[in-house]
Amino acid sequence: MRIAQVAPLFERVPPHRYGGTERVVSYLTDELVARGHTVTLFASGDSVTTARLVPGWPRSLRLGDPSLDAIALHMAMLGRVYERAREFDVIHCHTDYLALPFAGPCPVPTVLSLHGRLDHHEVHRVYQASPDVSFVAISDAQRAFLDGVRWAATVHHGVPAELYPFRKTPGRHLVFLGRMSPEKCPDAAIRVAVRAGVPLRMAAKVDGPDRPYFDAVVRPMLDHPLVEFLGEVDDHDKAALLGDALALLFPIDWPEPFGMVLIEALACGTPVIARRRGSVPEIVTDGETGVLCETEDEMVAGVARVAALSRTACRADFERRFTVQSMTAAYVGVYERACARTVATSRVVAPTPARPTLSA
């Protein structure tokens, strides 16, 4: 199958450090190539891939020139993708609604994975106006916010198993890994660790919009002797950090569409202590692969409970549900159905010609 993968330009594929969507695109693209598909990746020019790379911009945008118009750059890239549409059997976009103006008139099917939150209702009409696009949700929790579209599937993310080696023995510290943002609640993670008396290692990025929150709320808490702030980490350091942990703290307070770090922790055998928000209950099984909570008191109690959970069970659940192979197989099924539907709807049955009337 000839497949176009279209990634956001904010991070390279795969990201050097933080970056969820571009990481998923990387895993999916390379696995499709390994399965024999012909894949063209439209992404930033500093991306690294086994597919054919077509740069949408020379370098990823997040750490580059902040004056660049990111929307314009994405629209220009998408214009080039759809100019070449007949070179592909399917176009798989990861750029949210930006692709929709191009997808409508295109005869080649578009599969659109929605990676962001859908509880903001102003975006619903945009998606609902594209009945011919095959939409993919990354969790049922995300999908529940949006109706009136053609949902092709829910496909959970997957990661290569070899990136996150299984660690049988639990460590003695907790981990917070993600963004230093209010909805991720790193301040709650610090309070829980301090109250539990367990060291906390924090690996997280600080984006510009989150800087005031970080400076006012989180930074003063980093002076506690139980807390260590590491900044952003790469895949190697992330695997070591998660694998050596007693548990991952995930005290989010927003409808998380899919928490990549959750399955990365499970791959290492590390259980999760998390609030029941968004996709969390789909990924973490309470009492088996983690402890699901509502309050900080419950999370503190969860720290004492989590050591009794089986790390082998965490790894087994990851291998059953969240590998790159299972994700890729699901997407190939979506592509095949989208192509079959396009063929079916493009068939036009020629009208039966009327018989000539003989004159008397």
**Biggest beta-sheet profile:** 7 strands, parallel
Using the alpha-carbon principal axes, give the shape.
globular
Give the strand content.
15-25%
Total DSSP helices: 13
Task: Identify the CATH class of the largest domain.
Answer: Alpha Beta
Write out the CATH superfamily name of the largest domain: Glycogen Phosphorylase B
Terminal residue distance: 59 Å
Order of helices and strands: EHEEHEHEHEHEEHEHEHEHEHEHHH
Second-tier CATH architecture of the largest domain: 3-Layer(aba) Sandwich
What's the total count of β strands? Answer: 13
Q: How would you characterize this protein structure?
A:
- The protein has 360 residues and is an alpha/beta fold.
- Helix content is 35%, strand content 18%.
- The chain folds into two domains: 2-158 and 323-346, Rossmann fold (3-Layer(aba) Sandwich); 161-318, Glycogen Phosphorylase B (Rossmann fold, 3-Layer(aba) Sandwich).
- The protein has helices at 21-34, 70-83, 100-103, 124-128, 140-143, 186-196, 211-218, 235-243, 260-268, 280-283, 296-306, 311-321, 324-346; strands spanning 2-6, 38-44, 52-57, 90-93, 110-114, 134-137, 151-154, 173-179, 200-205, 227-229, 245-250, 272-275, 290-293.
- The chain has a seven-stranded parallel β-sheet.
- The chain is globular, with a radius of gyration of 23 Å.
- It starts with a strand and ends in a 14-residue tail after the last helix.
